[in-house]
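User
Class, as today's exercise, I want you to study this protein, comparing sequence with structure tokens, and judge whether sequence predicts the tokens.
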Amino acid sequence: MAVKPIRLFGDPVLRTPAEPVKDFDKELRTLVKDLSDTMLEAPGVGLAAPQLGVGLRVFTYYVDEQLGHLVNPSLQLTEEQEEGDEGCLSLPGLVFPTNRAVGVVAKGFNMYGEPVVLEGTHLLARCVQHETDHLDGVIFIDRLDPDQRKAAMKAIREAEWFGDEAPVIKDSPHPTFGKAL
């Protein structure tokens, strides 16, 4: 098992947009294995490469007993939104209601460079959106309304895992359909 340490909120790698994967090689397959092992051990439903300190556009997921991964994802989202509790392995113990699209069609590649289309709703759609946000340097608390974001930042500052550095908050570059801005 190759369980790696998960980077926590405040680490600059979590705010840095990841680079597209160009080489579908043994190193990428090792990264996917490390992501999967770490996510399952945590346990979590998704984990993106930046959360292990790797600035590449790849994430793993485990939803409804389906384990998978996606490299260089691009998303098509439904217009219908739903609010649901969301947390993050990089913000241990924190959960906040977050608006997300109900459905997603994600196109990308597997670790061998073969095209993949992943379609899902509800939890799978939320997971895919959350992990793709990580690849863009966005953390789910960026999508909260101002009052929720303020409460999240207070909870982060009070968390025993939080370091001494001031966190950076930024607005999501993705369409939020007029919500959470």
Summary: The beta strands are 46-48, 58-63, 66-77, 81-88, 91-101, 103-109, 115-121. The two ends are 41 Å apart (CA to CA). The CA atoms of residues 133 and 139 lie 6 Å apart.
